[in-house]
Design brief:
Structural class of chain B: alpha/beta
Domain Ion transport (chain A): 40-270
Membrane topology (chain A): Multi-pass membrane protein
Largest sheet of chain B: 6 strands, parallel
Number of domains of chain A: 4
GO cellular component, one term (chain A): membrane
Number of strands of chain A: 11
Strand content of chain B: 15-25%
Strand order of the largest sheet of chain B: 3-2-1-4-5-6
Strand order of the largest sheet of chain A: 3-2-1-4-5-6
Helix content of chain B: 40-55%
Radius of gyration of chain A: 36 Å
Number of helices of chain A: 21
Keywords (chain A): Ion channel, Ion transport, Membrane, Transmembrane, Transmembrane helix, Transport
Number of helices of chain B: 9
GO molecular function, one term (chain A): monoatomic ion channel activity
CATH superfamily of the largest domain in chain B: NAD(P)-binding Rossmann-like Domain
Structural class of chain A: alpha/beta
Distance between the termini of chain B: 44 Å
Number of domains of chain B: 2
Shape of chain B: globular
Radius of gyration of chain B: 21 Å
Oligomer: heterodimer
Low-confidence stretches of chain B: none
């Protein structure tokens, strides 16, 4: 077996090894996967390590580190080296490059040559090494090698390593990099002015007897200090010509500074929504938010208020800045954007974490659209949609809504009840809205509850100021127990169960009464005092 | 033109919806609006509708407000219109029932101040419904399939003069055993029109003119009505 064959065989072994893949996956989670739960801990650890090693560097300037300091330094460098090597390893799969080359050669019936394959694998790794962050990593390690001690200042690059571990710094860099063209233009303009001014001042001042400029470096230094409006004053022009150049340079400097400021400001202005949205995304992730509210109009606001009263976590999406501001004032997580935006829904975790979506916008077209795409992305999600027109209820159900709420229909129901039966209205209104203190409540009968096996007649509900309304039980109707039984979805409801009705574990006892009476009953059940 | 005692002002989607619900309950309504297009749309759907200038008190008197009309619904989509109509109608008839739509808490306060009897906020209610669906899904499912799914009705039954029920205590009725019905409560008109819930702890003694609010199947409610009527003739 030739060397090349051995290598190929080894590559295939790696490709087929689950242990190798598992290991690489674990390293990926640790170093790169932004969603891995371990990432924040690793990042904080690395930040502390970097800060510690830089602090040692500062301390070392005036003091002797001693044995412990050296040990910590060695430890930190070891961790940096391991991290560098792991990232180097993680960047791509060399064995896959070789396998690909080999299979291509086999396919077109060429002889496989190891040389080019290996070199392309090496090129892949080299590509990693020339990445800015990889260079920073390397520069943070190299000066620790004794013969290269003179490079000690590069230990400061360890601070740049913080880019990797903090999101805000990397966001700053990302924002600036989007303004690359403007910044490059500015830089060229600045270099041109500096160079021109430096040349001119050198020309006039270096020859002059009282001139403070000794070399071209001095004039560059002077030009930059003047242009940036810092103006130390350690080098000042002594000739009239030199002063004229200063005047021109100062005015040009003002332009450059304001140009620079405006670039930065506009870059952040454009990106601020995105940055805020990212903040919210990570917050949503951290808090394990499972409810997404699309639309923060009147209905959305009411729902959000109720949900927050229940201490449930949710996140609001609305295209209007005004609504988002309102949501934030109330302390809710909110992102400005359209619910129809596929990528926004994905960033919110609609495919994974979110298990309830509320489409509450005032536009039925939008509600149907969001319902449809959300249902396609996640078949198991619960979707509650608002239907502003009665005829759209069917469409929403067809699009995949689990439940629909039609504001006008509910209004009609209540209003009609008021016109027809004003007395019964209060009861209906109470049932529908729970705004009256009397309402309908359900109590779950637990497996170990004292109520299991009891008959309805044995419990004196009236003494507890409760009216038994019915029982919700899993399964289908058993019409022999009670004749007024209604089939619900996978459950059934026994209305007005007779005295002989026997309670079972897991039944939901539906009661009408004051909320305190129900709370009291629950309390008694918990303590087994019934 | 028949004399309807229930009028709806505002022929938008909301007016349409309420008209449909009312006619399902056998209540005939007449719709009014100042918008010709909306009225035309409703006429095409077979509803009774007409154009009116609601700012003119004479016109309002002409359609029976202050005379035979008992209930009006102000369902314009603009709050100022509802407010204006409420004020005018209240001035014409202090006993008129005025039901208004409101789209915010502030606007509902204004409408109540203007003299509305009942202000309903569809968005508030819908929001609460959505929350109920999340917080108590089984209950909502049950209510939707029974009470709002037309299997079970809530009904009010007036106790006629010389009924055997008069003089009985609420707890003696035992309607949940004799009929398949639950008595939610009773309204004693002499004590105001508040609903006294069965579970309030007060064992109310019924007399003629009281109104029972019961919940149950349609047939059972009919049976009770027949029973109450039949019993009233006996000594």
């Amino acid at each position: 077996m030739s060397f090349a064959q051995k290598i190929i065989k080894y590559c295939y072994t790696l490709e087929g090894s689950t242990r190798y893949k598992g290991l690489k996956g674990a390293v990926y989670n640790l170093l790169q996967n932004p969603r891995a739960p371990i990432r924040p801990y690793f990042d904080i650890f690395m930040i502390l390590l970097v800060l510690l090693s830089v602090w040692l560097l500062i301390y070392e300037v005036k003091h002797d580190l001693g044995l412990w300091g050296d040990l910590i330094e060695v430890g930190a460098v070891t961790i940096f080296i391991i991290e560098y090597l792991l990232r180097f390893w993680l960047y791509n799969d060399s064995h896959k490059v070789i396998i690909e080359r080999y299979e291509r050669a086999e396919f077109i019936n060429e002889t496989f040559r190891l040389g080019p394959a290996l070199s392309s694998a090496i090129v892949g790794k080299l590509r990693y090494m020339i990445q800015p962050l990889a260079i920073i990593d390397l520069l943070a390690i190299i000066p620790s090698y004794r013969p290269l001690r003179f490079l000690r200042i590069f230990l400061l690059f360890r601070l740049f390593k913080l880019f990797r571990y903090t999101r805000s710094i990397s966001e700053f860099v990302k924002v600036l990099s989007e303004k690359r063209i403007e910044l490059v233009t500015l830089f060229i303009f600045m270099a041109f002015i500096t160079f021109t001014a430096a040349t001119a001042i050198f020309f006039f001042e270096a020859e002059h007897d009282e001139g403070q400029i000794d070399g071209f470096f001095d004039s560059i230094y002077w030009a930059l200090v003047t242009m940036s409006t810092v103006g130390y004053g350690d080098i000042t022009p002594q000739t009239t010509e030199g002063r004229v150049i200063s005047l021109v340079l100062i005015i040009a400097g003002l332009g450059v500074i304001s140009f620079f400021t405006s670039i930065i400001v506009s870059a952040f202005g454009e990106k601020i929504h995105e940055i805020r949205a990212h903040r919210v995304f990570s917050e949503v992730e951290r808090k394990q938010v499972d409810t997404l509210v699309c639309g923060f109009g009147r209905v959305g606001q009411v729902v959000a208020d109720r949900l927050s009263e229940d201490k449930r976590s949710f996140v609001v999406v609305d295209p209007l800045e005004e609504n988002i501001r309102l949501a934030k004032q109330r302390g809710y997580l909110a992102v400005m954007g359209n619910g129809e935006d596929n990528s926004l829904l994905v960033s919110m975790g609609i495919e994974t974490r979110i298990n309830r979506l509320l489409c509450l916008t005032g536009d039925d077209v939008v509600n149907v659209y969001i319902t449809l795409i959300a249902r396609q992305m996640n078949p198991d999600i619960e979707i509650i949609s608002r239907a502003n027109h009665r005829e759209n209820v069917n469409k929403l159900h067809r699009a995949g809504a689990s439940h629909c709420v039609a504001p006008y229909e509910v209004f009609g129901l209540i209003a009609a009840e008021y016109a027809g039966q004003p007395v019964a209205f209060e009861a209906v209104y109470g049932l529908l809205t729970r705004q009256t203190s009397e309402g309908i409540e359900a109590v779950r009968i637990k497996r170990d509850s004292s109520l299991v096996g009891k008959q309805m007649g044995e419990i004196d509900f009236l003494a507890r100021k409760l009216i038994p309304f019915g029982i919700i039980r899993d399964g289908c109707c058993d019409s022999e127990i009670d004749n007024s039984c209604f089939n619900l979805n996978e459950r059934c409801f026994y209305f007005n169960p007779g005295e002989g009705f026997t309670l079972q574990a897991n039944d939901l006892l539906v009661l009408i009464g004051h909320e305190y009476s129900v709370i009291h009953l629950r309390d008694c059940l918990e303590r087994g005092e019934l | 033109m028949a004399r309807q005692d229930t009028l709806i002002f505002g022929c938008g989607a909301l007016g349409h919806e309420v008209a449909m619900q009312l006619s399902e309950r056998g209540i005939q309504v007449y719709l009014y609006s100042n918008n010709l297009d909306e009225v035309g749309g409703l006429l095409a759907k077979g509803l009774q509708a007409a154009v009116i200038d609601y700012t003119d008190d004479e016109k309002l008197l002409g359609i029976g407000i202050g005379k035979w009309v008992k209930t009006i619904f102000c369902l314009f989509s603009e709050e100022p219109k509802n407010l204006f109509l409420t004020l005018s109608a209240r001035a014409l008839d202090p006993d008129l029932k005025i039901v208004c739509v409101a789209e915010s808490i502030e606007s509902s306060e204004r409408l109540l101040a203007a003299g509305a009897t009942k202000v309903i906020d569809p968005y508030e209610i819908s929001g609460q419904r959505v929350h109920e669906m999340i917080a108590r899904p089984y209950l909502v499912e049950m209510l939707e399939n029974t009470v709002f799914g037309k299997h079970i009705d809530i009904a009010e039954i007036e106790i006629p003069d010389s009924s055997v029920l008069a003089g009985m205590a609420l707890s003696d009725l035992e309607l949940n055993k004799k009929y398949d019905l639950i008595v939610l409560g009773v309204v004693d008109l002499e004590m105001g029109n508040q609903l006294i819930f069965t579970n309030s702890g007060v064992d109310h003694h019924l007399d003629a003119g009281d109104i029972l609010v019961v919940i149950g199947g349609k047939q059972e409610i009919e049976r009770l009505k027949q029973g109450v009527l039949a019993a009233s003739g006996e000594p």
